[in-house]
Amino acid sequence: xxxxxxxxxxxxxxxxxxxxxxxxxxxxxxxxxxxxxxxxxxxxxxxxxxxxxxxxxxxxxxxxxxxxxxxxxxxxxxxxxxxxxxxxxxxxxxxxxxxxxxxxxxxxxxxxx
Length: 113
Fold this sequence. Notes:
Elements: E1 3-7, E2 10-12, E3 18-25, E4 34-39, E5 45-51, E6 58-60, E7 68-73, E8 78-83, E9 92-98, E10 102-103, E11 107-111
Parallel strand pairs: 2-11
Antiparallel strand pairs: 1-3, 3-8, 4-5, 4-9, 5-6, 7-8, 9-10, 9-11
């Protein structure tokens, strides 16, 4: 069955960096577009970023553009989100998502001094 397992979250100070990973299994990872979505405390879901099958085309929410970078390694069936210059408003649960197949369980990112 399809599994998406996120990792790499944690507590980081404002201005710091984190790299999230999402290990995919149960489908042909390299054939699907992939996404990151987040949910801040008390708020709704927010789309963060999308990457196409080959990794050559990406999209970002305005709130993260220039600070976050999405990438993928199809040989490792893994999706990444490199997050730099983190702000308190980036605090959220981050989900790896495949629109047609499902979502991961999420990983918590907390940006606080």
